[in-house]
């Protein structure tokens, strides 16, 4: 078993976790054992992340840091030594104290002005340390005649947030006696339009969201209990960012150094201490309560967002959707509460295959049961001939719809119909589409591209293609900016509109408003969906009119 202590540096959008150390009072603290002197120049300092790892099994300590720099513009350093050491008391600036060296690294040479050691990682044998509970520090020592009898002075010290206990040479994280206090319930929400999750244990926020003041947010069904008081617990910092407007996001951390690091990040605004949690033991288990896992969306929605869950099943589900598990940031909460409302197995997804009549088939079934089935001509898989759309229901592996509308652009017009299919969720679908225009069976397989959140950044660009309506087709060009604003036209008809990512799936909600003149739909607004195939650069946009007697299908190449 190894004891791992990390150091934090917050990246602009991903809050990348590098570790768990913070500078002492006054930005850095210095001091020495009795007889040592404090160096006053502080020219040689750590820059960036640093940390250590102790292997009890191997009897070694791994020391690592991003950079050790001589910040003087004129003075060459003396001999340098980096020490991992422990003290029984916290270090304050200027204090003299007794310390025990755990491991040390001697720099191979002095540093000239402005020179540095970079990306250093060394493993050293553990030195004897008496039994006890200690604060852990990583310090830079410089040898200089002015340092007195020991000939070494401190120039920079970083203190780690977690104390350690040493017993007969074995190291472990020291856990103070936990005395939990009162609790409150944390509630999870999801915004389908943003594709973001939000967590709060604040009663007034819960009441406001539940009342609909903040439109678009709805409960996922997940709750868990957190502590609001108690001894031996860690405070949880809460941050907010509006940097990625119109999308915002909240972020929580119980790691003190990560909290301090994010406070220095101008993109994030510190709000408050939200609640209390227990920190995991060295082996990852909770001293009390249950684990709360943190997962990062990797910026898939164009903005950072995290999900926090006590459910291993949900954790695995989110990893499958491209979220990154941040297990080093696991917290322990009072109780698991309720899991998210389980979703019924449905036909939702992107399906691709062929019909019995030799046509290529591509279908999208959304979470609300609405569907859009595209089919090609019999002569060419790459030339679209029509779209079947409607709303259906999933039950026990069957998907059925009796309100299908077949929009055929080969000159056959629009006809009512039905869809009946059997499916295996996220795997396969086979069924029949029937209308007065004809009947055809189809088989299709699931395309996991559906599970990747739609990106306006990827969608943005100019497209050339064709707009199809029941009366025929014509050439058109479309431009979409990074905000999802649409403009385009062709042959005397201009239009504008918007494309908005539809939650966490690779589909956009679409609105198109026509500019009158020679437009078939006058100045009306049509609503539908759009799908962008990143591999081919093709944009598919489908929007029926309100009566579903006509509509548009645009296919364009970026």
- Helical content stands at under 10%
Sequence stretches where pLDDT stays below 50 over 5 or more residues: 1-40
Please state the average pLDDT score.
Answer: 85
Global shape: elongated
Structural class: mainly beta
**Rg calc:** 31 Å
Instruction: Give the domain tally.
Output: 4
Total strands:
41
Separation of termini?
53 Å
Largest sheet, described in full? 8 strands, mixed
Approximate strand percentage: over 45%
Q: Tell me the number of helical segments per DSSP (H or I, 4 or more residues long).
A: 4
Question: Could you please describe the fold and organization of this structure?
Answer:
A hairpin with a 3-residue loop joins strand 31 (413-424) and strand 32 (428-435). Residues 1-40 have low confidence and may be disordered. The chain has four helices and 41 strands. It is mostly beta strands and 558 residues long. Strands 2, 3, 6, 7, 9, 10, 11 and 12 form an eight-stranded mixed beta sheet that branches. An eight-stranded antiparallel beta barrel has the order 25-26-27-28-30-31-32-33. Strands 34-35-36-37-38-39-40-41 form an eight-stranded antiparallel beta barrel. It has four domains: 2-173, no CATH class; 179-333, no CATH class; 349-448, Lipocalin, CATH 2.40.128; 452-557, Beta Barrel (Lipocalin), CATH 2.40.128.380.
How would you summarize this macromolecular structure in one to three sentences?
This protein is mainly beta and 558 residues long. Strand 32 (428-435) and strand 33 form a beta hairpin.
Give me some keywords for this one:
single chain, 558 residues, mainly beta, eight-stranded mixed beta sheet, 4 helices, 41 strands, 5% helix, elongated
